[in-house]
Amino acid sequence: MVDFKTLDDLDASGKTVLVRVDLNVPVENGRIADFTRIDRIRPTLDQLADKGAIVLLLSHFGRPKGKAVPEMSLRPIAEGLSDHIGKPVTFIEDCIGEPVQKALKDAKAGDILLAENVRYHAGEEKNDADFAKDLAAAGDLYVNDAFSCSHRAHASTEAIAHLLPAYAGRNMEAELTALTKALEKPERPVMAVVGGAKISSKLDLLFNLIEKVDILVIGGGMANTFLNAQGINVGASLCEHDLADTAVEILEKAEKVGCEVLLPADVVLAKEFKAGAENRAGKLDSVEEDEMILDIGPDTVTLLKARLAMVKTLIWNGPFGAFEIEPFDEGTVTVAKAAEKLTKAGELISVAGGGDTVSALAKAGVADGFTYISTAGGAFLEWMEGKTLPGVAALAR
Question: Model-level pTM?
């Protein structure tokens, strides 16, 4: 756990505070379609503005690769942000230089400004020292409230933190507190759920988790690769046959360190991958060559609910099945609701993250029922993999 300073340690009055946020939000027809990330940074914006700071927001949007791409301008985001938080947000045509200095000259205490896309400059993704100095020149203090961007050593997340007094914003603080409580200093027993399509993208995660948790539940297409490695026919299911040896290695290591690995005991099968497809629940030895495993079966759901009742901490990344289409969302939804019930009863600390996971839990209607749901994707995964996040490390006291 990095020992970092928070807004509690900051005297913002009369200061210009550069705040790195993640406003890389979904936009449809020129309007913000999901305000989750904005809601998460609002406590930081409100506190700094109310304390008399001039708040200058830095963010990226899309991947313009060092060029000014009009479709990736933050101007529409400034308008949507202003409407959502009920405060004026002044948009600045650039993130460095004269436009910023002019805007700050006209600003007063409590104002919120949003600079143009930092990735319009090639120095951002190169973590260029000179570009970081140009950014830092505008402010007195720096606050990182973008945990979701902190797995990248970029100028606005890493280099700048060494040039100004650096603090964690409320969103960053909440993420680090929740993840530390779940993985570094958890109440035991700890269960981790890891789902998704392929184990090839989560090898580091799996190898790290078996060292840290008591029960590892593997679901989704990933589970098929493990079942196949054990000699079970998975028919036409998504499966990485070439990773059978790796799957066996993970299982053997888990046994050696005392981590129980749970794979599906039964499955839901279909011959078509479409909503409402004809399907059946079946035992593992009943999969036919033209059938696909698209969800966990009822016996597995019952087993997982029983295990959940035995643990104190749950970390969840990835769905159990093809949750996007009914009825193959049933396993994920049912287990998620069981986790929510235990969390609300004060019997479980539940932390979840990752794009598909957030979508799946929202679909299950439990997004507000977990202890904490991370808005980060790659950063959440890399934290769970045990990797050092440059933007977080840069905040160390």
Answer: 0.91
